[in-house]
């Protein structure tokens, strides 16, 4: 279940909008909201664009797009696919409504009115069991179109905060691994081409000499 959501500007962690949580939710998630603030301080516009951070009974999922971070706190058992589908719904609407204004705002929670859309969308994603019991539910339709999240980075909150892991460093490491992998693929192709040349070059040379001899003889 999606419990709480907050939207901040990535470049300076300025809060832009947040869900209006009841008193019980505030008390229950107090520690995790503090962790979310620490995560925002570590995120830059160049950080990993999607990440799930496990913390006890809950998981903090965030989506980074166009210098805006969309983060939701959900139950650990809540499907990651649904969590990121929910965040993508928020990103589309927020970008369409407020995108050009994000860089210019100076006061916190300048787009507090976005809570109405967040609350409405969260209700669609709230109870996966009830939704799956009804074949015609909106959530079932969303499930049919969910993207693959197997490549989304997953971290533990202790690894991220206590050991000082950097989200930028993780992103650079991921990019570096992809670059090195591409280099190895190119090197492997070059080796295969060279092997083919060594294998067929003698045959080609003999064939060329034979053609030259025939041409010289009958010319």
TrEMBL record:
It is found in: Endoplasmic reticulum membrane; Golgi apparatus membrane. The keyword Coiled coil applies. It is a single-pass type IV membrane protein. It comes from the Eukaryota. The chain crosses the membrane at residues 200-218. Keywords: Coiled coil, Endoplasmic reticulum, ER-Golgi transport, Golgi apparatus, Membrane, Protein transport, Transmembrane, Transmembrane helix, Transport. One of its GO terms (molecular function) is SNAP receptor activity. One of its GO terms (cellular component) is endoplasmic reticulum membrane. Residues 138-198 form the V-SNARE coiled-coil homology domain. One of its GO terms (biological process) is endoplasmic reticulum to Golgi vesicle-mediated transport. Residues 6-118 form the Longin domain. It holds the Pfam family Synaptobrevin. PANTHER family: VESICLE-TRAFFICKING PROTEIN SEC22B. Belongs to the synaptobrevin family. This is Protein transport protein SEC22. The lineage of its organism: Eukaryota, Fungi, Dikarya, Basidiomycota, Agaricomycotina.
């Amino acid at each position: 279940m999606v419990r709480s959501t907050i939207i901040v500007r990535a470049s300076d962690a300025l809060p832009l909008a947040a869900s209006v949580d009841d008193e019980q939710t505030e008390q229950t998630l107090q520690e995790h909201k503090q962790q979310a603030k620490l995560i925002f301080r570590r995120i830059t516009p160049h950080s990993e664009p999607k990440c799930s951070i496990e913390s006890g009974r809950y998981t903090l999922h965030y989506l980074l797009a166009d210098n805006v971070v969309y983060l939701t706190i959900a139950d650990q058992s809540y499907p990651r696919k649904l969590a990121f589908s929910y965040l993508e719904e928020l990103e589309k609407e927020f970008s369409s409504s407020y995108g050009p204004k994000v860089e210019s705002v100076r006061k916190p929670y300048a787009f507090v009115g976005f809570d109405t859309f967040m609350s409405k969308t969260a209700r669609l994603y709230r109870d996966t069991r009830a939704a799956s019991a009804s074949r015609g539910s909106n959530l079932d339709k969303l499930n049919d179109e969910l993207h693959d999240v197997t490549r989304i980075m997953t971290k533990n909150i202790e690894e991220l905060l206590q050991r000082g892991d950097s989200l930028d460093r993780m992103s650079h490491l991921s990019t570096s691994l992809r670059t090195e992998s591409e280099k190895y693929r190119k090197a492997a192709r070059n080796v295969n081409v060279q092997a083919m040349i060594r294998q067929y070059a003698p045959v080609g040379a003999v064939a060329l000499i034979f053609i030259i001899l025939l041409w010289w003889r009958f010319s």
